[in-house]
């Protein structure tokens, strides 16, 4: 499902958050603008009343301004005994039709005066009437001229009205049409809506772009992984931005894919090499037996054939045993003991074991063995030393020499096997520990060498947490150095 994808989920969350923020912002902006507008209308209406009840000094008025009633030499209406008459007159003469209007109410008497522009259906300002000071007149305690008490505002359809409680139970309602203001507010709402929708779409598009960019490396990774799972191990993720989190992940995955490829290639080559190695002795046995059985033979010929078959079978046994041993070490199934043993003693025993072969080849084995107490499996390390000595003798020259030395160096037990043999060419040296690798292929195979000896040595030494290295000069000789961890305490 497309909507299950991370990209769409990101997009949906982004959309929801953006819509919520824009709606909140839009509603708040509209409310602030609306409240400001109403407040300014209310102030405007309040000023109209101020002008009505509080006369300004003549010099502050423009010459064409009609003086309010209280200014025409008469006392301010509230202070006069003709309080009600003056108030009624001021209200009935206020403004003109279509403009701001006034309606005068008195407690229990209803609307007692209205200006010419006042609409007929202005409802009773109950709340203001309830707050209008009772019969407090001029000269009495608590009397203050002018509008008093809280200004109560209301919006009634197209009209905005404020009610002002006056002394003696009077309430003046001042109002005006706000049709134009409402239309302006509507335009503002539409503008906010359009701007919000625009920003929302822009935000969605931007968010979609960002999400697509952020997700692209994941898509690349999954596409590459799919191609790899389909069998193409050479595929790698194209890492453009190596510093980002996904770039680093892609880097790690690429390294893993490279190791996987190397291991698969090695595995495939190993299987091919193993089959090839086993096919040779099998072919020998088949050819020998077929030729021999083609007709009657003498006992000497049968014996010769059987001996050839035996040699081929022995070769197969050596090979299968080596293969099995390698497979077991690889799988961690070859038990490696962790005991204290003297590397010097193990080297001496191996040298003694291999002595007959050395004599046969007229090679002199020299030893320089000090005490080096290592931790590990003495039997397997003995196998390593024997393999190295066997190679040193085998690849040596006539009447050559082999030197075996053991000693400690820091935290390590060191074993060195040097020979005065043919040496190993520089181009072969990096591959010498690979399985089935032979520097001189035809010769080594003809001599029945498996090409697994050094690979087994390396596997055993690695399993001990040690290392094996080669130094060789063609024509001068080779030195193999084995490092093993010393036993502690
Ligand atoms: P092999 O059974 O062929 O000896 P190894 O794994 O023991 O297999 O050795 C791999 C190859 O390394 C050999 O075929 C040989 O060419 C080369 N090699 C090993 N040891 C020596 C040595 N001491 N001197 C020269 N070449 C050597």
UniProtKB/TrEMBL annotation:
Domain Histidine kinase as annotated: residue spans: 273-488
Sequence segments annotated as region (Disordered): 49-79
HAMP domain sequence ranges: 212-265
Gene3D superfamilies referenced in this protein's UniProt entry, alphabetically: 1.10.287.130, 6.10.340.10, Histidine kinase-like ATPase, C-terminal domain
Protein name per the record: histidine kinase
Subcellular location(s) of the protein: Membrane
Broad class of where this protein is predominantly found: membrane
Species in which this protein is naturally found: Paludibaculum fermentans
Domain of life: Bacteria
CDD domains listed in its UniProt record: HAMP, HATPase, HisKA
SUPFAM superfamilies according to UniProt: ATPase domain of HSP90 chaperone/DNA topoisomerase II/histidine kinase (SSF55874), HAMP domain-like (SSF158472), Homodimeric domain of signal transducing histidine kinase (SSF47384)
Pfam families xrefs: HAMP, HATPase_c, HisKA
PROSITE patterns (alphabetical): HAMP, HIS_KIN
Sorted UniProt keywords: Kinase, Membrane, Phosphoprotein, Transferase, Transmembrane, Transmembrane helix, Two-component regulatory system
Chain ranges passing through the membrane: 12-30, 188-212
Recorded GO CC terms: plasma membrane
Reactions this protein catalyses: ATP + protein L-histidine = ADP + protein N-phospho-L-histidine
Composition-biased stretches (Basic and acidic residues): 56-74
GO terms of molecular function: phosphorelay sensor kinase activity
E.C. no: 2.7.13.3
